[in-house]
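Sequence only, no structure available. Ideas?
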Amino acid sequence: MSHLLILAAEKPENPLVPPIPELVIGLLAFVIVFGFLAWKLLPNINKVLEQRREAIEGGIEKAEAAQTEAQSVLEQYKAQLAEARHEAARLRQEAQEQGATLIAEMRAEGQRQREEIVTAGHSQIEADRKAAASALRQDVGKLATELAGKLVGESLEDHARQSRVIDRFLDELEEKAEATR
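Reply:
I predicted one. Tokens follow.
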């Protein structure tokens, strides 16, 4: 111990500066450890980093491919949607045109049926008027014949004579009726 004290007393040493032999041994140990790590560990680290880089680049490429595919699918859907809208508009237009045509046809058919009904009505009225005129003519002729027979005092039962008298009487009535109009 005394020997240590003597050494310590001889030279005052700086506690921050290590002795040279320790510094050389420490530096040599550091180089050996660093070399061993660089020889064994650095290739593995580089290999893992390279794999990660490739995975990331592959993921980016896959993502870009997926995005491109999604964009093309989106464009297809947009095109299909536009085509469907165009088709719907065309179908709507056709339906409107068919509806307008159908309405025009139904109006024409209704007009034709109305005309038929009006014509049939006029024909029926004309037939009824003629039948009524004929019945009236017969009734008036009978009454006129009876009245004339009573006035004249002789029977006008002869059919030919009766028809002539009735026709003459009715013709005179029609002439008077037309003259008053």
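DSSP finds three helices and no strands in the chain.
Hope that gets you unstuck.
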